[in-house]
Amino acid sequence: MKTFILFLMLVPCFCLSQMKTGTFSDLEILMKEDPRPIIIHLYTDWCSVCKMEKYTLNKDQATVDLINEHFYMVSFEAEKTKEKIQFQGKEFEYLPNGNSGIHELALALSKNKNQPVYPLWIVLDKNQKLMYYHEGIITPEKIKQKLLEISAL
Fold first, then answer.
1. Rounded to whole angstroms, how far apart are CA atoms 22 and 38?
2. DSSP 22-83
């Protein structure tokens, strides 16, 4: 029993390697204070590939540290986020479609304007110019390599 209680006390310590994420409104404030490259991760809650990817990326401590130290990250649930979002001087809204819908910003960020591919990774430089675009699953090694290239610029 003591071992089980000790295990439960230590579990939070193993979960501390989470990537820090914010919102688009946070991003606006942070970019004024300390401009950095931006990572936008589009996903949906029904996407099993998105869930697997998030799990493997959070397990890679070097990638998590790189993201947390040198980038701002916004995780954006493309089909459930319903509030208006201001980004790059424009306002985007949720577009309902029966029982579901999609956010205009997800469509604006995606190269596939009919239906974005999830997960979708977009990296912008500190001037919000596109540096990297990746549809579908990505490995921690590949994202780390790309982010190291971008952070070295």
1. 11
2. B-HHHHHHHHHHS---EEEEEE-TT-HHHHHHHHHHHH-HHHHHHHHHH-EEEEEETTT--S
> To 10 degrees, what angle do helices 140-152 and 61-70 make?
30
Q: What is the mean pLDDT of residues 38-58?
A: 95
Give me 55's structure tokens. Answer: 């799990």
Check pLDDT > 70 for residue 31. Answer: yes
Average pLDDT score over residue span 84-99: 94
Which residues touch 139 (CB under 8 Å, ≥6 apart)?
56
Cβ-based burial of 137 (10 A; exposed 0-12, middle 13-18, buried ≥19): middle
pLDDT number for residue 7 = 43
> Does the N-terminal peptide bond of residue 12 adopt cis geometry, omega within 30 degrees of 0?
no
pTM of the model: 0.85
